[in-house]
Amino acid sequence: MSEEFVLQLIQKSLRELGYDAISEDLGDAIKLKRGTKTSLAEAAGWFLLQLKQGQYEAVEAHLEALLTASLPSPVLDLPQFRDPHAVVLTTLYLVKKTHFFEQLVQSPNKPQQQLLEYLRNQLLPLLDKLQARVTQIADSEFDFGHGSELNLVFDSLLLNQLNRESESALLLEFTTNHDKLTLVLASKYFFGQPIRSGNLITSARTLLTDTLLGKLLKNDKQMFDTSYDIPDNLLNTIIRQSVLYQKLQNAYYLPPRTSGEGKKRSDDEDLALTLDKSATQLHELYKTTLFPNNLLHTLKNHNFEVWCAKFSPLGRFLVTGALNGELAIYDVWDGFKLLKTLEPSTLNTQGFQPTDKRAYGEKSVIYCAWDQHEHYLVSCYLDTVVRVWEVTGLQQLTTKKRITRSMNDATTGEIKLASSFVLGQDIKTWTCEFLPTLDDTSKPRFIIGSPDKALKAYDVDGTELFDFYGNIDDDGDEETHDLNMKEDSPIDTAVEFEASLSSSAKNKLDNGLDKKLENNFNRINDIAVTPNGKILVTASNDRRLQFYQIPTSFNEEASTKRLASITLKGRLTSCSISANGKYLLVNCAPEELQVWDISGLSNLENPEPTPILYRRLLGHTQSIHVVRSAFGYLVDSTGEEELVISGSDDGFIYYWKLHTGQLIGRIKGHHGLCNSVDWNRFGGVGGSTDYGKLWCSVGDDKLVKIWGP
Fold first, then answer.
1. Within 13 Å and on the Cβ side, how many CA atoms surround 367?
2. Same structural domain for residues 259 and 188?
């Protein structure tokens, strides 16, 4: 970065901050320093800089000195012109006219008598000299036509108006009506050139240097090589970018999550945090103060292993499920106070009573999901029963009102089992997700996935609406986009091993592989639904991710189609989708998370909707157990999460940067397996607490832990 650019940047920044006098002193120092040099380009840079910054007196004094004393100019390369005085006169008139315009804009109440005196003493005499000089040129032996040389450096339309009659009338009109200045009048003042709305002074200066004197500047390319057209507030922009760069170098830095936080974390505070701290100090500051990895609450309401956890869509509640089948619901806004415990045997008259009595371990809660309005909760159990809970009464439990007889179940805090059902004889139900609600009158709908080759949609009354596997359009003929990761594929490993076997052994291997693939096909471990409710993702035992189009309505004509298929390396245990529907997070046992960009699938008309591997995240382990991971820290301004978090076999919780894949660190969360983590992504701000920064973890140690900044 050149010294001249830095000086010009500082000078302009001083003027923007209101320190005009200091800026002028710096300009004088720059001018003095450049005056000792013979470089035409450097001197010309001073000339343009003065005009752009409105330092008209210095420019006018220099041009007038050229006219009166015939001094050689270090600014204008005058020897190239046959009559340099005409060029100087025209340039001086345009500078003075622009200077006069700024005076009128800055001082609309200036006495008219003073304005008329400026016209008589400054502008009109100069115009007379210019007209006389042009006439003298026309009569000389170097007659090259009226303004023909001036036409090389000034616009012909401008020159045609440079006569006393038209200019005096225009200047008088402008002087009389300057207090009623309009863009039309301003444009007329500058020879019909357009004036941009906004800052008239900035527009006038730009018009002078880029248009009125534009040909003169282009005629001598050397003239302004060292003058820079510095954008407004550039110094502030440079400082912002420098601060942001310093922050992004720190693994624990997270941007403000909400606009309110952005205002609190002002630029001055960020600057102090960044420039006054060493790298080590910054690391500890972001890690201990701003990063949400501090243990806030330890909840001990479960007496058995806790297998799942789910924040509600509006961020108000948290539900956790345990080995004995209990669901515990907490109030996020009230310090995670326990609101309700739901037992798997709780039934109402609409409920389904299982015929066999199973042990606690076989009633374990495997997964649960909320509807978008927090009115229903559906839970999947190891006893194969799907239970749908109506939880509208939770709102009443969070308020302290006197209960009256006129209040119904929803208003008195009653929570009931709306329905319970099985998909079929001994058909397990391991995962479920609600679909976006069509309207306020329609019943909430959800999809159930089973390792026993079932994938169906239901409403909250337990009515089956749609069978995905039974209504696939041309599934046998349609080619799917299979992104088989060959370097890691278990099938490839088997094929390599096949080469060393006898023919009989090969036949046995082929039969075994076919049977294994057939047995695992469509055996679902987890599902996910995009926020717009258009795409269903399944993670199956055959190590495939399948992408299905969800019908807009579940009527008799409804059907689906498989959009794409991905074959991965490890056992797929769980999957989830980011808040904006762009990314898919997949757990691949035993030691990998993968993030896929599935935004291409959103365009259902795309002939080749191919997911793209975005990040591979390593560090955690999961051997034979299901470990659920989550996206976290949703930033309002971008609509994207910043983090990925995951539990692990060793009880540690790992966290990565989503967009870089960087493993930031790990914290000891539980003794034994950490089964699941979930982030309160849509939590709002209440008082001084940002509930969207809270997340939870659950484990085999029977504990539910709440984490945050």
1. 24
2. no
- Residue found by looking up tokens 């695992």 in the block: 520
The pLDDT, as a whole number, for residue 400 is: 53
Is the residue at 549 inside a domain?
Answer: yes
299 and 278 housed in the same domain: no
Report yes or no on 225 lying in a domain. Answer: no
3-state SS of 154-183 is: CCHHHHHHCCHHHHHHHHHHHHHHHHHCCH
Give the separation between CA 111 and CA 66, rounded to whole angstroms. 32
Is residue 227 a part of any domain in this protein?
no
The number of angstroms, rounded, from the C-alpha of 5 to the middle of its chain's C-alpha atoms is: 33
Rg (CA), the chain: 38
Is residue 611 within 8 Å of 596, Cβ to Cβ?
Answer: yes
Q: Which residue has the tokens 């794409």?
A: 564
pLDDT digits 0-9 by tens, 22-78: 887 777 676 666 554 434 445 566 777 788 888 888 888 888 887 776 545 544 545
Question: In the structure, what pLDDT confidence band is assigned to residue 251 with cuts at 50, 70 and 90?
Answer: confident
- Residue 349, domain extent: 294-708
DSSP label of 76: S
Whether residue 465 contacts residue 455, with contact meaning beta carbons closer than 8 Å, is answered with no
Instruction: Report how far residue 171's alpha carbon sits from residue 338's, in angstroms, rounded to the nearest whole number.
Output: 80
Considering only CA atoms, which of 602, 593, 598, 594 is closest in space to residue 612?
A: 598
Question: In this structure, are 200 and 263 located in the same domain?
Answer: no
Whether residues 116 and 258 share a domain: the answer is no
CB atoms under 10 Å from CB of 706, counted, come to 20
Question: CATH no. for residue 359?
Answer: 2.130.10.10
Instruction: Tell me the pTM.
Output: 0.65
**Strand pairing class (386-390; 376-381):** antiparallel
Note whether 392 and 410 are within 8 A (CB). yes
Closest CA to 670 of 634, 642, 644, 646: 646
Query: What's the domain count of the chain?
Result: 3
Residue 510 is encoded by which pair of tokens? 């082929």
Identify the CA nearest to 587 among candidates 652, 647, 517, 522: 647
| Same structural domain, 66 and 213 | yes
- Choosing from 265, 290, 315, the residue where a domain stops is 290
Residues 427 and 554 in one domain: yes
286 and 370 in one domain?
A: no
Note whether residue 229 is domain-resident.
Answer: no
Q: Can you tell me the distance from the alpha carbon of 36 to that of 31, in angstroms, rounded to the nearest whole number? A: 9
Q: For residue 614, which phi and psi values (nearest 5 degrees)?
A: -100, -50
Q: CA-to-CA distance for 665 and 652, rounded, in angstroms?
A: 10
Looking at residue 24, its amino acid is E
Secondary structure of residue 467 in the 3-state scheme: strand
Does residue 318 sit in the same domain as residue 282? no
The mean per-residue pLDDT over the stretch 107-121 comes to 82
